Amino acid sequence: MSKYVAVIALALCSVLAVRADVSPDFLAKLGLAPENLPKDFLTEVNGYQDDFSNGLDPGVWKWTSSNGRTNPFSLVTLAGGRTVLQHTGNSASTNNHLLCEPGEGYSSTTGTQEVLMHVQMTYFQAGTSGTANSYLYGGPAVSVDPDASTGIDLHFVQFTGQLGSQRYKLGLGAANANRFYPGEQSAGTVWVTNEWYWIRLVHDMDSGMVYAKAWLSGTEEPDSWGATVQNVSGYAGLAGIASSNRNATFNVDYFLVKADGLPAITVGRPIPEPATMSLLALGGLALLRRRRQ
């Protein structure tokens, strides 16, 4: 009997070992060391996470467009076998989104909704030198109305239309007049193409606060927020990814949404599928048979 108990304990320990840390494959995919992960990794939250290694679930991800634009998001395999969600838009309106709806009744009107993304901008259409208008290239989105496809976005942006002016910018709705510009509400340092960045966007619908930050992947997450905005009301709905209003190509290989009402998960630590647990148990039984022979 004690042998059976030992085997079961061995199988359970194996399962726990799988869950005890971020998957090495996951770390290798992101090109990160454990000490350089965002602060919420390995914590339990109510949320949904996707590294797109199993495809783009049409039951979870839905393209919304207020002007009939074609979906610019697709799964692409990069050199080395890395699967990413890639945006290849061409002058799509900024109030278009790929929205994440991981469960019935998830659309939020109260509480806090938060998105964390791992993003790489690989190409962007430069603006006209000297123009005052900013070019928005996409990023995380929260509290998006799925019918109007308008919400709170945190974009990669080229602010003045001149190379070297790349920042991040909070956007509310679809009107540039409601957007917060770098220097007033910048959310991080200058970004460049072909580098990976973490971007975090939070909307507290109860207090009306919006928080945003962005930092270079492989470096420690900053404690302070790059941008905070007060009294943001009238926005509620789904989280997702904002599209671009110009030609822009960017890759996303990790997406996390945190919100009340979603299942409890451990960030960055996928729970083994039942089939995996069964294989571990079978492995333990096989070990027992060998020991009894």
Helical content (DSSP H or I, runs of 4+): 10-25%
In total, how many beta strands? Answer: 16
Structure class: alpha+beta
Give me the strand/helix succession: HHEEEEEEEEEEEEEEEEH
CATH homologous superfamily identity of the largest domain = Exo-inulinase, domain 1
Distance separating the two termini? 16 Å
Number of helices: 3
Q: How many discrete structural domains?
A: 2
Low-confidence stretches: 1-21, 181-185, 271-293
Q: What is the CATH-assigned architecture of the largest domain? A: Sandwich
Find the CATH topology of the largest domain.
Answer: Jelly Rolls
Average residue pLDDT: 76
Given this structure, which CATH class of the largest domain is correct? Answer: Mainly Beta
Shape: globular
Major sheet characteristics: 9 strands, antiparallel
The value of Rg in angstroms is 21 Å
Describe the protein's topology.
Elements lengths: L1 H18 L4 H7 L13 E7 L10 E5 L7 E5 L5 E7 L6 E5 L11 E13 L10 E2 L2 E7 L4 E9 L7 E7 L23 E9 L4 E8 L10 E3 L8 E5 L5 E12 L4 E3 L7 H19 L1
Antiparallel strand pairs: 1-15, 1-16, 2-5, 3-4, 4-15, 5-14, 6-11, 6-15, 7-9, 8-9, 8-14, 9-10, 11-12, 12-13
Helix pairs in contact: 1-3
Keywords:
3 helices, Jelly Rolls, single chain, disordered C terminus, 2 domains, seven-stranded antiparallel sheet, alpha+beta, 293 residues, nine-stranded antiparallel sheet, disordered N terminus
Description:
The chain has 293 residues and is an alpha+beta fold. The protein has 2 domains: 46 residues, no CATH class; 246 residues, Sandwich (Jelly Rolls). The strands form 2 sheets. Strands 1, 3, 4, 6, 11, 12, 13, 15 and 16 form a 9-stranded antiparallel β-sheet that branches. A hairpin with a 4-residue loop joins strand 11 and strand 12. Helix 1 runs antiparallel to helix 3.
